[in-house]
Every structure is written in structure tokens, then in C-alpha cells.
Design goal:
About 50% of the residues lie in helices and about 5% in strands. The chain has about 270 residues and is mainly alpha-helical. The protein starts with a helix and ends in a 10-residue tail after the last strand.
């Protein structure tokens, strides 16, 4: 792992993008992956040339070590490094094909109007966000916090959205704080649950997810929604961050997955 990290830092500029915060970038890179391989999926790893930021290779999950006939991540990185340095003309042609395909998919249909009144845009955004997080409409086992924040702010500042918004936002908070996505023993929130009822967690905890959820639960409390489970989940998550996610140098670790602790001696 140390060799892998050293190689990445020496030859690449790694950037982690939150697909919920940046769905526009996620769409571009996912389309690029589908163009290259005919299929998509997450985790999504996209490799961009530094001069024009055009993706020239993409894939989903790469194992750390070679297994099941698949190369390890270090081997993938080494191959891409050689390709980028040695195959300049093929790289140029490859990027041209990808750019053309992306531009074609981005062209608006003829006659599509781009003039939308502000209140219509606000209403559309409200309906979209509440629809995504409303369990009556969409069974979703991901936190989707960026979609929760807009209805919550509308609940606080726009009277016409107050009742429905408060119900939807409070329910999402309860799903998070009381459901299986929250680690009721060790603290912290898992990435998602594998079922739509927030019961069975996928054992992976992301730093940015937990930061967003803590802020969201705190915002629910500050909006006057008094729920003891919110305070308990926030306190448990902060304790988990201090105990398990803080490096000796003071930095926070980015993630913790099911394989982070695989031996009884792991602290």
C-alpha cells in the first residue's frame, strides 16, 4: 500500500469528487466510461490528461493486489503512465473520439427553451429534491444530504414549503439516526444500506458523508426539531471521528471500509 501511495503521489494528481455534490462532473465521467467500455458503475475512477482535462481512461473498482485475473491498481497506474508518455498520437485520437461523443450527447433538442422564471426554477428544484428524499416516492438507501439541505432551508425561509418540507426532512433525519446506516455501537454513519428500509448497512464509512450528516442533523435541531436521537448520533459520530478517524499527525482519514480491521490485533 505504501508503494502504491508513493507511486500515485509521484506520477498523478489524485482528486476525489463527491458525485452527490457534483452530479454534472459525475455525468461527464460516467458517460466517458460508458463510451470506453460499454458499461458503467461506481466506484468510478477516471484519468484525465492535465492539459485539457479530457478523460482518456476510466474504470470502476480496481483491487489493490492482482486477483481473479484482474491487475492490481499499481499495475493499472504503471500501464497508464507508460501509455500517456509513449503513445501520444493514439492518446490524441482517443481523446478526440471521447470529446465528440460527449459534445453530441450535450446538444439540446431543437426548440428547447432555456428561459425559466426564477420561481419556476425554485419550484422545480424543490419538487426534485423532496422527491428524491421522500420515502413515499423513492426508496433510497443513500443519505443524499445535498438534496436534503435545499428543502430544509426552504422549510425555514419559505412559508409555502414549510409543512411538507419539514415532514420530509425530519423523516430523513430519523432514517439516518435510528436506522442501520448509523453504527449504534461504535458511532459514525456507513456509506449506505443495501435495502430500502435503512436496515442493513454496507460496512464502509466515508469522512465526507459523516461531515454532511452531522451538519444536517445539527441544522434540524437548530430549526426547532427536537429529537434526542439526532443529538445522540451527532455525539457518537464526533467520538468515532476522534477515536478512529484522526491520524497521529492531526489529519483525518478519508474512509474506513470493511477490510480496514481484519486482524484481532488491529487497533
Amino acid at each position: 500500500m505504501k508503494l502504491l501511495n508513493k507511486y500515485i503521489n509521484a506520477n498523478f494528481l489524485p482528486i476525489k469528487v463527491d458525485r452527490e455534490e457534483k452530479p454534472d462532473l459525475d455525468s461527464i465521467y460516467m458517460q466517458s466510461l460508458q463510451i470506453m467500455s460499454g458499461q458503467g458503475g461506481w466506484t468510478l475512477n477516471a484519468f484525465l490528461s492535465p492539459d485539457d482535462l479530457v478523460p482518456f481512461y476510466a474504470g470502476t473498482y480496481f483491487p489493490v493486489d492482482p486477483c481473479y485475473g484482474r491487475p492490481g491498481f499499481l499495475q493499472v497506474l504503471q500501464a497508464l503512465h507508460r501509455y500517456y508518455d509513449m503513445e501520444k498520437e493514439e492518446l490524441r485520437q482517443r481523446k478526440a473520439v471521447i470529446v465528440e461523443a460527449l459534445l453530441t450527447s450535450a446538444v439540446l433538442q431543437n426548440g428547447a427553451s432555456q428561459e425559466v422564471e426564477d420561481h419556476q426554477l425554485l419550484q422545480k428544484g424543490w419538487e426534485t429534491c423532496t422527491g428524491i428524499i421522500n420515502p413515499k416516492q423513492v426508496s433510497n438507501s443513500f443519505p443524499m444530504i445535498p438534496y436534503c439541505e435545499f428543502p430544509l432551508r426552504g422549510t425555514r425561509f419559505h412559508y409555502q414549503y414549510r409543512y411538507d418540507g419539514q415532514q420530509v426532512c425530519t423523516q430523513r433525519g430519523l432514517d439516518l439516526a435510528l436506522g442501520g446506516i448509523y453504527d449504534h455501537v461504535a458511532g459514525g454513519f456507513d456509506r449506505y444500506t443495501v435495502d430500502p428500509t435503512w436496515t442493513i448497512p454496507h460496512f464502509e464509512k466515508m469522512l465526507y458523508d459523516n461531515g454532511q450528516i452531522v451538519e444536517y442533523l445539527a441544522n434540524l435541531c437548530s430549526a426547532g426539531i427536537q429529537e434526542p436521537s439526532f443529538e445522540r448520533a451527532v455525539a457518537g459520530t464526533v467520538k468515532w471521528l476522534q477515536l478512529e478517524m484522526t491520524a497521529p499527525t492531526g489529519y483525518f482519514y478519508a474512509a474506513q471500509d470493511a477490510d480496514s480491521f481484519i486482524h484481532s490485533t488491529d487497533t
